[in-house]
Amino acid sequence: MALGAIQLAEVSCQLHDHCTIIILIRKKAVIRNKLVEFKKVRQDQGSFRRLFIDDLFMLSIWYTSKINRKINGFQLIYGEKAITWLEGEGLSHRCINDAGWYNPTPILSESAGAIPATIVSTFKAHASDLEKDILEYILQRLEHISSKT
């Protein structure tokens, strides 16, 4: 799933047995080296999410509500891998399996191993325009886990 080549589509990424997140992917627009927020993100009742995309990353941030704005999870997709952090579950780094023609919904599958330090540093550079509290929140979790590997 190379972000630069994706057409406009809805993609489902299954986080775990009971939670499916729908995200809107951009069409051909190449946003280089800088995460840009998509304002028209499909929202589910009772929660709120934001979506940021550039040529290397897709970042989804999940909040408890639009009013509260307390982050309860995020997912950073790069290449065919996803780093997901959920409140109460912690962080995972998994491969994205497109499941083939018989099931067009991509799912998170086996572990992708350690998070490369280059991914964290590249994300930091691409996310420099994110709100400071969001950037610190995500980096704190990414750097904590990458320093253990």
Mean pLDDT: 75
Structural class designation: alpha+beta
Tell me the number of structural domains.
1
Give the number of helices: 2
Strand arrangement, largest sheet? Answer: 3-4-5-6-7-8-9
Question: What is the overall shape?
Answer: globular
- What is the string of SSEs from the N terminus onward? EEEEEEEEEHH
Q: Report, as a whole number of angstroms, the end-to-end distance.
A: 25 Å
Write the layout of secondary structure elements.
Elements: E1 9-16, E2 19-25, E3 36-38, E4 48-53, E5 57-63, E6 71-78, E7 81-86, E8 90-97, E9 107-111, H1 117-126, H2 132-147
Antiparallel strand pairs: 1-2, 3-4, 4-5, 5-6, 6-7, 7-8, 8-9
Question: What report would you give on this structure?
Answer:
This protein has helices spanning about 115-125, 130-145; strands at about 10-15, 20-25, 35-40, 50-55, 55-65, 70-80, 80-85, 90-95, 105-110. The protein is globular and about 40 Å long. The two termini are about 25 Å apart. The chain has a 7-stranded antiparallel sheet with strand order 3-4-5-6-7-8-9, covered by helices on one side. Strands 1-2 form a two-stranded antiparallel ribbon. The chain has one domain. It is α+β, with helices and mostly antiparallel strands and about 150 residues long.
